[in-house]
Write a structure and sequence with these properties.
Oligomer: single chain
Structural class: alpha/beta
Number of strands: 13
CATH topology of the largest domain: TIM Barrel
Largest sheet: 9 strands, mixed
Order of helices and strands: EHHHEEEEEEEHEHEHEHHEHEHH
Distance between the termini: 49 Å
Number of helices: 11
CATH superfamily of the largest domain: Aldolase class I
Length: 383
Amino acid sequence: MSVTLDLTRAAPAVSAPVNLSGLTREGLRQALIEAGVCPPEKAKMRASQVWDWIHHFGVTDFAAMSNVAKDMQAKLAEHFTLARPEIVERQVSKDGTRKWLIRTAPGIEIETVYIPDVGRAGALCVSSQVGCTLNCTFCHTGTQKLVRNLTAAEIVAQVQVARDDLEEWPSPKEDRRLSNIVFMGMGEPLYNLDHVADAIDIISDNEGIALSRRRITVSTSGVVPQLQALGERTQAMLAISLHATNDPLRDVLVPLNKKYDLAQLMAGIRAYPGLSNARRVTFEYVMLKGVNDSPEEARALLDLIKGIPAKVNLIPFNPWPGTDYECSDWKTIERFAAILNKAGYASPIRTPRGRDILAACGQLKSESEKVRASVRRAEQAAA
């Protein structure tokens, strides 16, 4: 049984046409039948045709579907949409990182980041919620209040927007620029597992975008009851936003720890479906000066993850306006990494990317939220 936050107060209007990009294969087949686009006996074939145009060729107009009859094109356009969301802002860092501020509905804005030279070729960091409930104290994204869960269509749209910009249609099988997907943007994916799972089914389909599930990573702060379901439903790679080796410190850095402490979290990780040396869990550990970066903490981390097929990503803290934390010195980070390496754990130090456009890890936050807040303050002052 999945846990999905009930945020229907902010849900899109029910009268809005359904975006076919967010439907699984079976969902697409059913939608065509229910809308009277085609009879049930032809729905599977028609759904495959439409699927190919949406997810392999990336079309946004039903009229572009050349092997679909004109009358069917008209029926599709009457009932459905393929429209991309609005790109409010596009920024490119001096290191090649790209960030898009995407508006999927009125008041619904998310940030998505493409990082070149990560994974096989380049990784897209996607969001699963608008805002976040977790309030991790080192994370800029966590300072934005949760608005609602994203739909599968809104998650898939982030991939489509990136591939539009990277000019990767039709879907390439080789020489991809976008080779990996990481659910490490805004929100906690396991609080929106139904839509995240559907989006992964769509993204990984071999006749569409065709990204291997082993190149899709879902990062969680530790929603322990959902770990089993995540593994069984998605077969995605697991990443854990850890950042501390003891409960008192993690209670501060990652307040969710008060609900699911380290003992529960580690037990859930050890039981994650498919965990093996070939499918290691990634522990994410942000390096905070004088907080969690001592050699003693490194050795405590080794004790905590002992026996788990794992690697540890050491993340230099990315500063943001108003934070009290500082990044650990580089020598301190290297010393921490050396202790982990000596024990046999890969512990790459993540190179900060996109800091100049606030696109680095933990920095995502809709700029428009701050603009709206400024407008409200101005209106209140004038009242």
